[in-house]
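Why run this: before we spend reagent on co-expression, it is cheaper to look at a predicted model of the complex and decide which construct boundaries make sense. The entries below are exactly what would go into the expression plan.
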Amino acid sequence: MKISEHVHALKMPFKIEGPSGQSIPRFVYVYLILGERICLIDSGVAGKEKAIFDYLREMGRRPEEISLLILTHSHPDHIGAARAVQMASGCEIAAHAAERAWIEDIELQFRKRPVPGFHSLVEGSVGVSRVLQDGDVLDPGCGLRIEVLHTPGHSSGSISLWLPEEGLLFSADAVPLPGELPIFDDATASIASIERLKAVRGIRALLAAWDEPRREMHARRVMDEGIGYLQCIREAALGVASADPCSGADPMNLCRLVLRELGLPETMANPLVARSIQACPDRGDQE
Ligand SMILES: [Zn+2]
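The model came back. Tokens follow.
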């Protein structure tokens, strides 16, 4: 899907493993910036390099022209095919310093954050050749600038990317969608990061990893809703903790109680969501 003169979005369907082994359909967006060289934003899960390469060929381009793959963070659906893309193109791999260890050693990531089906989602470890920090500016090779915004919360080294010439803001997983799995490392940092994204002037489209492209006014609404959702999660976690101070003893039980409070199905409870609920600071104050 063409977003602007240089930017294309590729929707990548995949499946994750549910709590009882069932398969749950999901998708993630990968973005391509096509200039004299080609820059990719995230890679999708293992095996998705084929879809990326096929799309490039349809556009009359070659995979070898990919010179830069920016990984917005280290989660499996963003880095799964990075190794294959790097091997086919020899491209630079760029990511924030705080995500580097989990990209360069996927077994370390799996030990610390055991996502079900992890090894079917991530092909292998890959070296980060360019370490990014807030304020860095990258050159995708078509007279455009990519500005790096450090937007922690979903994970500590999550970055968003701003393309001022085209008014495109790539937010990866920084803005949660109400009703979707609430996954973050730090709710307060997440809210501050979305406030920061809201302050960016001249947004023509918000391009998230888990959402359709949102144009102008819709972009602002999605960010407001994301903040509201995080606040609701924090309040629900606080409410549950106040009603039963022992509820935190079993993270999965706490997770189910908070989901119920939010009006979400308890079947959404999983260790990643439980970890997010425990990362609500108001809850921590109760313990
Ligand atoms: Zn993520």
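The chain has one domain: 7-235. The longest strand covers residues 23-34. Bring this page to Monday's planning discussion.
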